[in-house]
């Protein structure tokens, strides 16, 4: 069971996936719900979310899944609403499927045929049977070409070498003559094409790279965001070669997404600051929705203008109502952002999932990292998140423009054999400041409240990084539980629960019972025998066996040929 | 999504005396009012009913004090030599006292007249008590006997002469009029029942001359003191020893119950009064006196604590009344007052403002009765707005930096985490720089904060290293250096001692364990060892000036 979960949870790890590989990774049920922007239906009652090869239709009212559409054999690259009740989806192989939204049945399947191209990057549907698809660029890697596909005529290439992210392509309608206008982003320029009239324009600003673009649904207004956090509003950009621009600059980090409200009065923008900004067009007023949990990837506005959905990098889609409050969320398995600001000597698994997978015997779930400073408990049998626990209890800090600001990260987790105790080690380090914090926290499970309560918080349990935590197994209920930690300060420490009761209150807390070292060697690994009567600590190439109650060294084991540290 | 989380202020538990409910309770006693008598204060007895008059026996007189005015209400001087152990009857009308000539004298408090003289003891009578029925008197005498007297007829009912030394301690049961205890210098405590005239029913050995005995109101346990020990005995189990407590380092002289029988107070020649919890016999508080304590009296409402001392001083301490507390600390009491008032907040409903209609207070006013528990402190407000300099300013006010340095350090810690320390410290004028420097100098040797303070000091030095400083700031920087040097010196000494201890420990552990391992057992974890801080201090200080 654990092994299976291992595969699943590793799934959303983008660092492992190779995007240039033509063979799309097959996952049982990928839970990455934020890879593609979600799409609202025309009546704003449902939202369609692509996750891997699946498409989920969720009710906006309750955030519950209504239908699960599973026909695609490759990852879905784009969703669009074709008609009131028809959802159009396209996967990476170019197969398009039309779905009935109300009952979740397949209406029509058709492959896209574009000049022998087998892989597609993104898919857009402007209407009238026309389809925009991005395909890999012939010469440049990581760039796309944009094609327009029509049922009557041959596919036409609109742009070459444009960015391949879903929000670097936008389309709109020219109110004057009703022609279709498509815009796309290149690194330093915006390319514009009026399809019907055949007008081509290329606008450039300065050296700031563009990140996202959006078009107003009625007027001919374009909004672009760039890596400096600046948002530009372009007026009359189809006809004039030097269009009038308005600058909206609040973000300090790159703008990840911009979105016009459907009436066109407001502009929403978001980025890694975890703040959604609501701009009133033509005025200097703006509203903020701060501390949204994690970076905003996409912002989508519902057609009825009441609700806004934001996709976040922690694998959650949040719904914001008209009073600028989050009232519902669809949360997948929380993805841990790789730790930045770590020393280069750390192995990559340390930064991606430092805790690893820790089995919880009480709930039969698995503990592993969530967002920075959080720990999640996942039930692999029911495929559901049991809870997401705030271990650090700190405000999540966002980076500044040229400065990586680290957050406290949970690096080690240990669960006692009965599941009553949970030990977490959180570390905050700033390599540039040469300062680090470390907290070892002991949590006790409260069966009445059904959550973990903080019992003891030890600041700097070791002088240097703690490499392993382990509870002593095999203890009967009558004995006080015991935890062993080893650190790079060459010490191992044994922590025991101590009765701290006095006449005023009943209290138990953890305290260090024994601190020891062995020949000034770095301890690298730690293990107990199954009955808990023997403790093994590896010091570089030597394994030492200890009696955990009396802390007597029983034996040392070493091999003359093995020189590498034992892990 | 989430609301702003408050800055974590880490205050490590202080080493030393813990602040508990008891210490707070007993600390509320005011500065004592003292009265000087001519001789040592032998005994203090408190009238069990209001107005809680206090009977003090010293030298050749018994004085009844008013505990509120501290004035002598009555005094009885009809003793030829010293008077001892004056005790007031439970109705507060009569007082009884023993004396050197071996008599027990009964006075009326109202009329001051001598009503009875009980003659029969051949030695001085040091303690005498009324029994619970109020018509008998028990006297404990230096002629090694304990006698029970009938009050109306002035006759001796029974006499026990079992002790082999002076009987200097005694008490009566609060439930039965027939039971009484005596404690003697022959180390024994004896329980008598007047209904069995053959002898004592229980006799226990205290181990040293008994100075005072006390029976709990429940009548199942009695306590004796003598020497430096307090012993607790179970009466129902025939005098089984329940507990031995030795908290004084000189002879314990007196015993008293306080806080409605939940606390036990002992006074001793070591000039302390210790307050115990009667369940665990742990000391919960200690009162200090200027001279050896001979006798103690506590009013039943704990309002007044009276102690009589060997040099003739009587100290009377009152519990602070609310009015007094207010006068002493007007600011704090104002806060309490504010809290006690019901806070109402009124807000007009939004639609009332826009629509022009008549005002209806029932529907148009929202009343918030609950006070806002989600209080955000000023530094958190500035941190939320990323105004780091202002956040640091708010925690450098004299009150916070002197009284609550943990808050200042907590904000500095948060600034380090946010990488905003440099911008918060930069560009400061002379006065704000001096407040930072004095704070650093004051707290740099506190091991629980040292790592953060050192970080701040290093950043400060980095910023102001090259800028020209006013003589005042320069002086403060030098002062900081001096503090660090002194700390380094101090830690060096400590490490020398640590090294010596290590040699001692190693020599003992090598005998017990194999020589290859070196284990220090039971070393508690400290968040920051002084040695590490010293090392960091030493490297930092080369940048100064």
TrEMBL record, chain A:
A molecular function GO annotation: RNA binding
Protein source organism: Daphnia magna
Localization of this protein: Nucleus, Nucleolus
Segments forming domain WD repeat-containing protein 75 second beta-propeller: 357-560
Stretches forming WD repeats: 248-281
This protein's name: WD repeat-containing protein 75
Example GO biological process: rRNA processing
Highest taxon above the source species: Eukaryota
PANTHER family registered for this protein in UniProt: WD REPEAT-CONTAINING PROTEIN 75
InterPro entries (alphabetical): Beta-prop_WDR75_2nd (IPR057644), WD40/YVTN_repeat-like_dom_sf (IPR015943), WD40_repeat_dom_sf (IPR036322), WD40_rpt (IPR001680), WDR75 (IPR053826)
PROSITE patterns linked to this entry: WD_REPEATS_2
Entry GO CC: small-subunit processome
Keyword terms of this UniProt record: Nucleus, Repeat, Ribosome biogenesis, rRNA processing, Transcription, WD repeat
Keyword Transcription tagged: yes
TrEMBL record, chain B:
Keywords: Nucleus, Repeat, rRNA processing, WD repeat
WD repeat start and end residues: 118-159, 245-286
Gene Ontology CC terms, in alphabetical order: nucleolus
Ranges for domain U3 small nucleolar RNA-associated protein 15 C-terminal: 367-504
One GO-annotated biological process of the protein: positive regulation of transcription by RNA polymerase I
UniProt-annotated location(s): Nucleus, Nucleolus
Major subcellular site: nucleus
SMART domains the UniProt entry points to: WD40
Domain of life where this protein originates: Eukaryota
The protein's role, per its UniProt record: Ribosome biogenesis factor. Involved in nucleolar processing of pre-18S ribosomal RNA. Required for optimal pre-ribosomal RNA transcription by RNA polymerase I. Part of the small subunit (SSU) processome, first precursor of the small eukaryotic ribosomal subunit. During the assembly of the SSU processome in the nucleolus, many ribosome biogenesis factors, an RNA chaperone and ribosomal proteins associate with the nascent pre-rRNA and work in concert to generate RNA folding, modifications, rearrangements and cleavage as well as targeted degradation of pre-ribosomal RNA by the RNA exosome.
Protein name: U3 small nucleolar RNA-associated protein 15 homolog
């Amino acid at each position: 069971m654990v092994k299976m979960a291992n595969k699943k949870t590793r799934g959303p790890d983008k660092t492992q996936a190779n995007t240039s590989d033509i063979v799309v990774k097959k996952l049982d049920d990928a839970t990455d719900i934020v890879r593609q922007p979600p799409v609202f239906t025309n009546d704003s009652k449902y939202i369609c979310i692509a996750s891997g090869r699946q498409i989920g239709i969720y009710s906006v009212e309750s955030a519950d899944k209504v239908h699960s559409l599973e026909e695609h054999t490759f990852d879905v690259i784009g969703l669009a609403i074709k008609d009131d009740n028809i959802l159009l989806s396209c996967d990476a192989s170019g197969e398009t499927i039309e779905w009935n939204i109300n009952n979740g049945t397949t209406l029509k399947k058709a492959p896209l045929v574009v000049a022998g191209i087998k892989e597609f990057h993104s898919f857009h549907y402007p209407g009238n049977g026309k389809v925009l698809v991005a395909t890999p660029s012939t010469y440049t890697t990581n760039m796309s070409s944009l094609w327009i596909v029509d049922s009557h005529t041959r596919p036409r290439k609109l742009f070459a070498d444009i960015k391949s992210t879903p929000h670097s392509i936008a389309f709109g309608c020219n109110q004057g003559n009703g022609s279709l206008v498509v815009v796309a982003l290149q690194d330093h320029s915006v390319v514009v094409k009026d399809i019907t009239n055949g007008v081509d324009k290329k606008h450039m600003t300065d050296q700031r790279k563009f990140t996202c673009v959006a078009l107003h649904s009625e007027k001919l207004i374009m909004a672009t965001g760039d890596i400096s956090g600046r948002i530009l509003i372009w007026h009359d950009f189809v006809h004039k070669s030097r269009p009038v621009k308005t600058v909206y600059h609040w973000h300090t980090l790159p703008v990840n997404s911009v979105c016009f409200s459907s009436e066109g009065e407001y502009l929403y923008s978001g980025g890694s600051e975890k703040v959604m900004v609501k701009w009133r067009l033509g005025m200097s007023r703006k509203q903020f929705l701060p501390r949204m949990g994690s970076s905003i990837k996409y912002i989508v506005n519902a057609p009825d203008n009441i609700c806004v959905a934001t996709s976040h990098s922690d694998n959650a889609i949040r719904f914001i109502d008209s009073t600028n409050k989050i009232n519902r969320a669809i949360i997948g398995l929380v993805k841990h952002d790789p730790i930045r600001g770590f020393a280069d000597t750390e192995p990559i698994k340390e930064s991606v999932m430092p805790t690893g997978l820790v089995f919880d015997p009480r709930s039969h779930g698995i503990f592993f990292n969530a967002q920075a400073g959080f720990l999640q408990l996942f039930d692999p049998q029911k495929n559901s998140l049991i809870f997401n626990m705030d271990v650090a209890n700190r405000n999540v800090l966002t980076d500044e423009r040229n400065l990586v600001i680290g957050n406290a990260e949970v690096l080690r987790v240990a669960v006692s054999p009965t599941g009553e105790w949970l030990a977490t080690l959180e570390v905050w380090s700033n390599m540039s400041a040469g300062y680090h914090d470390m907290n070892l926290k002991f949590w006790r499970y409260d069966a009445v409240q059904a959550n973990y309560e903080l019992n003891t918080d030890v600041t700097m349990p070791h002088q240097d990084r703690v490499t392993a935590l382990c509870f002593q197994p095999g203890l009967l209920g009558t004995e006080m539980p015991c935890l062993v930690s080893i650190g790079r300060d060459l010490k191992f420490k044994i922590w025991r629960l101590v009765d701290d009761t006095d006449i005023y209150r009943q209290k138990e807390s953890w305290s260090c019972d024994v601190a020891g070292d062995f020949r000034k060697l770095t301890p690298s690994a730690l293990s107990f025998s199954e009955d808990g009567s023997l403790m093994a600590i590896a010091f570089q190439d030597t394994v030492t066996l200890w009696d955990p109650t009396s802390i007597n060294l029983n034996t040392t084991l070493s091999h003359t040929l093995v020189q590498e540290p034992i892990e | 999504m989430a609301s702003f989380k408050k800055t974590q202020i880490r205050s490590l538990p202080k080493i030393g005396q813990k602040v508990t409910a008891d210490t707070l309770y007993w600390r509320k006693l005011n500065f004592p009012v003292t009265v000087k008598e001519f001789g040592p204060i032998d005994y203090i007895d408190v009238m069990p009913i209001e107005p809680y008059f206090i009977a003090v026996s010293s030298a050749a007189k018994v004085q009844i004090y008013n505990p509120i005015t501290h004035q002598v209400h009555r005094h009885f001087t009809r003793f030829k030599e010293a008077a001892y152990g004056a005790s007031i009857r439970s109705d507060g009308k009569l007082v009884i006292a023993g004396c050197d000539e071996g008599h027990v004298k009964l006075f009326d408090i109202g009329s001051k007249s001598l009503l009875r003289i009980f003659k029969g003891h051949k030695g001085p009578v040091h303690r005498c008590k009324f029994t619970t029925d109020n018509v008998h008197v028990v006297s404990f005498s230096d002629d090694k006997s304990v006698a029970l007297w009938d009050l109306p007829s002035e006759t001796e009912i029974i006499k026990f002469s079992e002790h082999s030394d002076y009987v200097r301690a005694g008490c009566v049961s609060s439930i039965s009029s027939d039971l009484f205890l005596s404690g003697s210098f022959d180390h024994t405590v004896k329980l008598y029942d007047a209904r069995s005239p053959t002898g004592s029913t229980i006799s226990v050995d205290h181990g040293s001359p008994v100075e005072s005995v006390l029976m709990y109101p429940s009548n199942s346990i009695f306590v004796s003191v003598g020497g430096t020990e307090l012993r607790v005995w179970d009466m129902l189990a025939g005098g089984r020893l329940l507990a031995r407590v030795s908290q004084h380092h000189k002879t314990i002289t007196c015993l008293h119950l306080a806080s409605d029988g939940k606390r036990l107070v002992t006074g001793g020649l070591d000039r302390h009064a210790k307050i115990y919890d009667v369940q665990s016999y742990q000391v919960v508080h200690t009162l200090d006196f200027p001279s050896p304590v001979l006798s103690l009296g506590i009013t039943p409402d704990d309002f007044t604590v009276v102690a009589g001392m060997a040099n003739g001083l009587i100290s009377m301490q009152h519990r602070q009344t609310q009015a007094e507390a207010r006068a002493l600390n007007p600011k704090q009491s104002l806060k309490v007052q504010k809290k006690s008032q019901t806070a109402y907040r009124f807000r007009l409903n939004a639609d009332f403002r826009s629509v022009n209609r008549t005002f209806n207070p029932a529907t148009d006013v929202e009343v918030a009765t609950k006070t806002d528990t989600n209080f955000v402190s000023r530094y958190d407000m500035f941190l939320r707005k990323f105004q780091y300099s202002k956040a640091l300013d708010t925690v450098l006010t004299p009150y916070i930096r002197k009284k609550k340095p943990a808050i200042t350090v907590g904000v500095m810690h948060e600034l380090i985490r946010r990488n905003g320390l440099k911008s918060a410290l930069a560009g400061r004028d002379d006065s704000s720089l001096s407040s930072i420097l004095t704070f650093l100098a004051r707290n740099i040797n506190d091991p629980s904060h040292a790592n953060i303070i050192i970080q701040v000091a290093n950043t400060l030095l980095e910023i102001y290293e090259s800028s020209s400083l006013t003589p005042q700031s320069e002086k403060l920087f030098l002062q900081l250096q001096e503090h660090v040097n002194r700390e380094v010196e101090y830690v060096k000494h400590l490490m020398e001692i640590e090294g010596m201890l290590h040699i001692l420990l190693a020599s003992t552990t090598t005998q017990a364990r194999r020589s290859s391992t070196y284990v220090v057992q039971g070393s508690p974890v400290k968040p920051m060892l002084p040695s590490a801080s010293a090392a960091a201090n030493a490297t930092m200080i080369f940048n100064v000036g």
